[in-house]
């Protein structure tokens, strides 16, 4: 399973970039304020870690929901940890000081992993949903 390297930041839309074939119909709700496409892929493997950095029960539920979706789709047996390497991981972080609305988040994906940073657990849930949507689009494009 691959997730194209995408950074979704809360700002204004970027107009001067080439749309990748698998993002031409990127219908995310709510629509991100900015999507910046970069080359590269994060490859999800059986050895991928899912890390929650704040030891927060609500964040653990969001990560658990994502793991259940991934495990069902792939047959993997991923689990949650509060520490892990800085590569091959999906990391959930809470940062109440972010200059975002309550349900805002940033999503960064590159070859080392995916990081979802949110102001609240609800924002982390939206970031998780968007990252799963990007994975589904990439998988459909590869079939």
Structure, described:
The chain has 143 residues and is of the alpha/beta class. It has a single domain, classed as Chitobiase, domain 2 (2-Layer Sandwich), CATH 3.30.379. It contains 2 helices and 7 strands. Helix 1 runs parallel beside helix 2. The longest helix is centred in the C-terminal third of the chain and has 22 residues. The radius of gyration is 14 Å and the shape is globular. The N terminus and C terminus are likely disordered.
Radius of gyration: 14 Å
Q: What sort of overall outline do the alpha carbons produce when their principal axes are compared?
A: globular
* SSE sequence, one letter per element: EEEHEEEEH
Number of helices: 2
| CATH topology (level 3) name | Chitobiase, domain 2
Distance between the termini: 12 Å
- Widest β-sheet, arrangement of strands: 2-1-6-7-5-3-4
CATH architectural label: 2-Layer Sandwich
Spans of at least 5 consecutive residues whose pLDDT stays below 50 are 2-23, 139-143
Q: What is the number of domains?
A: 1
Assembly form of the protein: single chain
CATH class: Alpha Beta
Name the CATH superfamily classification. Answer: Chitobiase/beta-hexosaminidase domain 2-like
- Count every beta strand, where a strand is a DSSP E run of 2 or more residues: 7
Supply the helix-strand structural class: alpha/beta
Q: How much beta, percentage-wise?
A: 25-35%
Q: Describe the largest sheet.
A: 7 strands, mixed
Which short descriptors sum up this protein?
alpha/beta; 2 helices; Chitobiase, domain 2; disordered C terminus; seven-stranded mixed β-sheet
């Amino acid at each position: 399973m691959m997730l194209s390297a995408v950074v979704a930041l809360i700002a204004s839309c970027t107009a001067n970039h080439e749309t990748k074939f698998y993002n031409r119909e990127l219908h995310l709700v709510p629509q991100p304020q900015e999507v910046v496409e970069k080359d590269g892929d994060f490859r999800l493997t059986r050895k991928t870690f899912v890390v929650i950095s704040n030891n927060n029960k609500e964040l653990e539920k969001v990560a658990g929901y994502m793991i259940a979706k991934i495990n069902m789709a792939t047959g993997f047996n991923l689990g949650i940890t509060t520490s892990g390497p800085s590569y091959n991981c999906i990391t959930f972080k809470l940062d109440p000081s972010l200059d975002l609305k309550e349900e805002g988040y940033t999503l960064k994906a590159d070859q080392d992993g995916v990081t979802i940073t949110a102001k609240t657990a609800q924002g982390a849930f939206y970031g998780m949903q968007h990252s799963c949507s990007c994975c589904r689009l990439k998988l459909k494009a590869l079939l």
